[in-house]
Design a protein that fits this description.
Keywords: Hydrolase. It comes from Microbacterium hydrocarbonoxydans. Its EC number is 3.1.1.10. The chain has about 250 residues and is of the alpha/beta class. It has one domain: Alpha/Beta hydrolase fold, catalytic domain (Rossmann fold, 3-Layer(aba) Sandwich), CATH 3.40.50.1820. It has 11 helices and 8 strands. The protein has an 8-stranded mixed sheet, with helices on both faces. α2 packs across α3 and α5 packs across α7.
Length: about 250
Amino acid sequence: MRQVEFDHAGSRIRWTEVPGAEPARVYLHGLGSMSAVYHAHVAARPELCGRRSLFLDLPGHGISDRPADFGYTLDDHAHAVATAMDHAGVAAAELIAHSMGGAVALVLAHRRPDLVSRLVLTEANLDPFPPPSAGSSGIAAFDEDEFVDSEFARVLERVGPEWAATMRLTDPRALYRTAVGLRKGSEPMMRTILEEAAIDRIYLQGEQTGALEGREGLEAAGVRVVTVPDAGHNVMFDNPDAFAAAIAGRF
């Protein structure tokens, strides 16, 4: 395990790392998740092993610290990831990012383009105010103290055992503030960053999730959009073969 301070209070972001060839691959998880849980089984596949791989847990999540006075906005998370990558000596990396982690990856690519050479995004949040069915919208619908004091336990019951397994390790206040930050989005907005980025970009959409809004605009901007068969939001679990192929550049 590696770690580095990311705020004025000495809080630390942590990650596990597999040595290998450059450029490194940096894996970012979604809201209430952990990076190694969602990505290590894919990174170990023959077509992907041999590359340096970092499995980062965002502030408030997994094994990273959870400061009470941290904002947990997309910018805040992107800053923490940049701090970790700088400390690890990683530049021009491939970012493999899921859901909310994809939004963080896009903000990072915009703020620190030196750190990112390629984006592989899986159902990343591209727009503000996700639909009511989205987990972040349901969390952000409450007041912060109300969510922390009473609703967090109810959310764990509603999301099902798979997501709850990692969400229960997320600090409730960090989870709430991250959901609020995700609902607000970034400036410029994540979709605009993706369309304007001058790097290799691929966006994976699970077939079971439905059509991707604004797909034509993304493709016109040079983003490769792939509908992954037999997969929902968690493509890396539902269809790991397709997920690995996308990371390996076989689409």
